[in-house]
Amino acid sequence: MDRVDHTNQGSVAGPVGPASTRPQTSSLQIVAFDIASETFGVNIFRVREITRVPDLTRLPTTTSGAESLLNLRGRFIPVMNMHRRLGLASASPSDRSRIIVAEASGTLVAFIADRVHEVMHLPPEQVSPMPLLAASSIPADFVTGIGTPHDRIITLLDLNKVFESPASAAA
User: What CA–CA distance (Å, rounded) separates 155 from 15?
Assistant: First the structure.
């Protein structure tokens, strides 16, 4: 998967609008990806583009958590360290790594996934809440549920919570 463009120009899935204007379906459509050998998923309607990892402009230490900037056709998008946000071991990008550009709290953000698997549909019977006793380094409010397709476990993430600024999280 080299590039998936979910903008209005050349969109594979059609125009993407606010959540309230999208048709509701019984299944959840997600993009599945790996971060530090764990598989995660996010709602496809949050994803705007998936592309190879280009040269990125490194930033000095910032309070926002952005480590670099992605120049995407003349638009600069902050690249967040998803490994750090999830409390997982960092890894250098490889040939399989991809940049996922997504919308979180009305803003475009990007993060590097170690590998992007696929876009998949999860029927309701394959989605359950996060077990209360599940031990994880990932903050519980980042997780919306667990997907279990084909004997796999996919942790479903709430990108609004994952990329919420530390200042607003403390409020």
Answer: 26
